Structure formats: structure tokens, C-alpha cells
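>> received
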Amino acid sequence: MNSVNRQELRAAVIGLGGMGRRHVAALDVLGIPVVGLCDMNRKAAEEFAAGRPEHPATVSDWRDLLSLGGIDLLCIATNGPSHRDIVLAAAAAKIPFVLCEKPMSTSGAHAREMAAACAAMGTRLGVNLCRRFLTRCLLFRQALQKGLVGRPRRFWSIVGGGGVGCVGLHYFDYAGWLFDARPVWVSAELTRNPAQNVRGAQFFDPGGQVSVGFECADGWRFVGDFELSEDVPRASRCIVVGTEGVAETDDFTPPPAGAACATARPLDQRHVAKTRLVQPEPVPLDHGPALDIVQATADCLADLVGACACPTVQAGIESVDVVLGAHLSSRNGGARVPLPLSGAGLQFDVPIT
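>> returned
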């Protein structure tokens, strides 16, 4: 599929909560007109549409939106359990481009079904794993891939409240993406009897502690440890421990508090036996701007409609597998669950947000 003229696309957005409105803002950044809006709260959709120059159609049922036709790019900003049905319907309608919010789905089987349906119908599907497009995260990845701290041994992330599926999923994907690695096992202890989900009692997305084994293309392995407990303040600190040093970043806080930093063995000392102490030296890092989800979503959309799309679909599947594997592990006393999911694990479904 070749890249297209963005101004010739006609976009629609399903779900006008905070994230859905960011999708609209991202479409505005790209100059893509919004011709349709859908939200269960029809009045809210109409009020939002009233300020739009395109005077988009407004509906309360996503099926009605798809029946209008004339949509080239569909943004799905609803909660996880609804994603499968909307994506399958969009593929059946042969909508050329679909960007789905994370989590891609609430079961490994459904995520794979969505990817296969879109591939069969010629729909290019993307998953908004926005850390892949945040400037600060991109700069950190570039530095690590240039050998900033050598090969990864450990990835630590302290994120805090938000749920293993809603927030943790971003960081499971982030850790693997930093080193082009895939998750191969997960072990977890999730919060027992968590507080009711802020998005509604119909959702179940506890926090907890999660460990994930990652494998790079050449077989190199490292472990990611994620602190996602609900009662931990939102810190969003990520630390990479490598064979040559340690690097730390914060994708959330504005500088200077959110600045990235690193210490590493001097290049001329990296041949020294690792059992001998070599004093690491500070390494300057360009930490980039603070979290900008609109910018990241716009870049994800631009990637989706560009000539060479980023493989976010496979990453979306893998991140869903990690979340559901964490639930399976926690139910089994923290035992490791091999990834990718297989057999009965593929059918396991949790209404994560």
C-alpha cells in the first residue's frame, strides 16, 4: 500500500473521552478532516462537533457510523472489550486505515483474529503504542541502540497506579522495543481484590508486580521488572542496567526533573575484564520534551498512512499476551507463563481497559 495524500483522507473517531479527543487533535495536526464522530453520549458528541469546521456527522452507535460510508481512516478510542467487534466490522467495510487504541484486545485469540481479518481485507491496522513515537522515548532508544550502556541485563520500571492492562502494557512494549526484543515469558503477582475500576465496574484491570523475560533477535536475553501497584505514586521511572553502564529516564515529567541520565564505562576501558572495577563516568543525554500524547498519536497516524508502517500490530498482540499471561501467572502463584500464548491461554479473556 502506497502512502496517500493526508488531505484527501476522511477520518472518523469512535469514543470521545480524553483519548478520543486527543485523536481528533492529532488528526488536526496532520490536516486530516474529521467527517464522523461517535460517542455513547450523543449530546457530548454533538457539542464537540459543533465547534468543528467540517461539521462532522455525530452518532451514538459505532455501527451507525460505519454505515454512513465514506471513511478512509478510523480511530478507535473506546475501551478494550469493544475493540475486536469494531475492528472486524471496519475490516468487513474495507476501511483502508484503522488505528486502534491499546489494549488491542482482551484475549490473545481475538487480537490475532483482528490482525488476520484486516490483512485479508486489505485494511492497514495500527495500534497506538504511543511510547514508540514519543520524542523522549525515541531519543532514549537511539542512545541505547548505539551502545550507551552495552547489552541489556535488566529493565526496571516504577510506574504506579493505572492497571497492568491500561498503563503497564505501555511499558511492557517499551522495554522490548528499546532493544527490538520479544517477550518470551511472564511472571506476576497481581493485586487481590483491587478497588473498583474508575472506568466502571464492568472492567477488571488490577495493578501489581510483573516480571517479563525478553529475547533479542540474536538470542540475547534480559529481564524486565515492573512495579505497577495501585498505591504507588505515578513515578514513571525507567532504568536500564547494561553490561557497560546504567541509564535512566522518565517519559512523564517535564525537565529538569524528568531528564534522562546515564553512567557508563569509558569507551577505552570497555575491554577490561568485567570483574575488575572501572569507575563509570556520567554520559550526557538529550532527554527531549515531556510527555506529549497528541504529538505521539499524530506520528503514529502518520506512520500508519505512510509508505512503510511500523509493525505495531505484532507489538499489540505481544503486549496483550504479556497482560493476559500476567493474569494467568498470578492465578497460579506467580509461575512463569511461556509466551506467546498458546492453547487454552489464547482463549483466556479479561475485560482490561
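>> The CA atoms of residues 40 and 60 lie 5 Å apart.
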